Amino acid sequence: EETDLRRFIATLCSAFQSQADQRQMEYHIMFDDGNGAGVVDRDKIEKIIYNLLSNAFKFTPDGGRVDVEVRKPSDLVIRIRDNGIGISSAHIPFVFDRFYQVDTSSTRFREGTGIGLALAKELAETHKGSLQVISTEGKGSEFILAVPVDREHYHADDFTQASGKKDMVDPRYRESV
Ligand code: ATP
Ligand code: MG
């Protein structure tokens, strides 16, 4: 059935509002003014957005800024932008690889295992969409998710089959899969 995408995405994003407040960060969500209804696999979209937002907040210092821009010309396009540490061009080709992390030094203070983006990209592709990155070291990053949300693209069976690759699922989320 159709989802009110605007409401659904706003609710997902609001989970990070208290962190933004506590860390004096600017956090804005912008929607275009088109019709915001579509057919999506909510579970997949939720996991993708959660991973991208947790990265944006993790790799942006206190006082920084995170923006979410949502448009639906035909596909649903969600851009998550931060002005954090960014990613150098040498690392960009690998950030979607499983377990790849730019900073693996022992002094590394950021948590994680390097699975979030691999999972997010896999979920975007099983949703017949794409996930791309644009980033400049020292300036910030932008992750762009695009997924079709019209009924013709949605075959629940495909999705179930594709997500049968259970080993791609982050153990933290496994119970909800
Ligand atoms: P996990 O997601 O498993 O908790 P993680 O966040 O380190 O761990 P990914 O989400 O897969 O792993 O991201 C891979 C790497 O890409 C990160 O370790 C980081 O080096 C880089 N990265 C991802 N998002 C950003 C971002 N918004 N800004 C800067 N670097 C990022
Ligand atoms: Mg992550």
From TrEMBL:
<protein>
    <recommendedName>
        <fullName>histidine kinase</fullName>
    </recommendedName>
</protein>
<feature type="domain" description="Histidine kinase">
    <location>
        <begin position="1"/>
        <end position="151"/>
    </location>
</feature>
